[in-house]
Amino acid sequence: MAISYYAQIDLIGFLPQYAVFNYFKTIYGALGFGALETIAFSLALASKYNLLQRDVARITFEKEQEKQAMLATQNEILEKQVSERTLELSESIENLRATQAQLIQAEKMASLGELTSGIAHEIQNPLNFVNNFSEINVELLEDLEAHWINQSSPGNGTPEFEILKNLKKNTEKINHHGKRVDSIVKGMLQHSRQGNSIKEFIDINALCDECLRLAYHSFRAKEKSFNATFETHFDQELPKLKGIPQDIGRVILNIINNAFYAVNEMKKITTAISGPDPATSTPYQPKIKVSTKKEQQNLVILISDNGKGISNKIMDKIFQPFFTTKPTGEGTGLGLSLSYDIITKAHNGKITVTSTEGKGTEFQIIIPIVEEELIYKNLAVNPS
Description:
7 strands, 64% helix, Heat Shock Protein 90, 5-stranded mixed sheet, 8 helices, alpha+beta, single chain
C-alpha cells in the first residue's frame, strides 16, 4: 500500500537521520528519482527534523524554567508566610509567658503580703504597749528626778541618783528604738497592702508635678530652714500611662523625698566645712530636677539631685528590703524596695540609678507603653 506524503512527514519524526535517508532512498529510487534528487530531498527533510527537535528542546527547556521559577516564587511566599507566622507565634508565646510570670508573681506577692501583714499586726500589739509604757516611765522618771533635785537634803551625787539617771536614759533608748520598730512595722504593712490594683490612665506630668510640690512642702514642714530650687522638664506629647495611680505616685514621692533628704544632708556638710557666712565661700544651692520623656515604646521619668550621692560599695544594696543609709530612726529601708517591686513587677518596667559621690544621684524609671495607651492619646488629640 502506498504511503502518502504527509504520512511520510509524520513518520520521519520518529526515525533517526540515517534511517530517514535510507527510507527515502529506497522509496524514491523505486519511483525513478535519481540519486542526487533523493539525497537532496533527504537532507532537506533531515534539516527540518533537526529544527523541529531543537524547537521541541527549547520549548521543553522554557517550560521547565517557567516551572522552576513558579516553584521558587511559591517557595519564597511560603517561607515568608512561615516566618511571619513563626514570629507571631513567638510573640504570643512570650506574651503568655510574661502574663503567666506576672500572675505567679502576683499570687506570691499576695501570699507574702498576707503573711507579712499578719506578722506585722502581731508585732504591732505588744509594741504599742512597749512604746506607751516606756513613754509613761520616762515621764515618771523625769518627775522623780525633779523631785530628787528639789529635795533639801543633798543626794544628787549618791549612787541612788546615778541609778535613777541611768534608768531614765535606758528607758529613753527603749522608747526611741521602739518607735523605730513601729516605723518598720508600718512600712511592712504598707509594703504588704493590696490596695486598688485596677489600672487607670494616668497623666504622668501632672502626677510628677503634684508629687514634687507635695514632697517639698512636707519636707519644709519638718526642716523649717530648708530651701531648694527644683526644675521640671515635661514632655507635653506624652501619652497617658495605664497603671495604678496610687502606686506610681508612691514611687515618685518616695524618690523625691530621698532627693530632698540628700540635698539637705549635703547642705549641712558644706555649711559645716565652709561656715555659715556666704561671703567667705560660694554657697551650696540644693537643686532637684524632674523630667519626663518618651523613648521608643517606653515612658521615662528622670529624678535627679545634686546631693551627696551614693557610694559604689552600697549601690547594689539600695533596692534590698530594710537597707537604708539614713541614721537609726530616720528610715525603714522599705521605700526603694517597695518602689522597685511596683515598677518591675506590677508595671513590667525597670528602675535604675546612677550616682557620683559628692555630685548627685539620678533615678530613671522606665515603663513600657502599650498600644492601648497610644490609641488613648490619639483619641484625646483627635476626638471624633
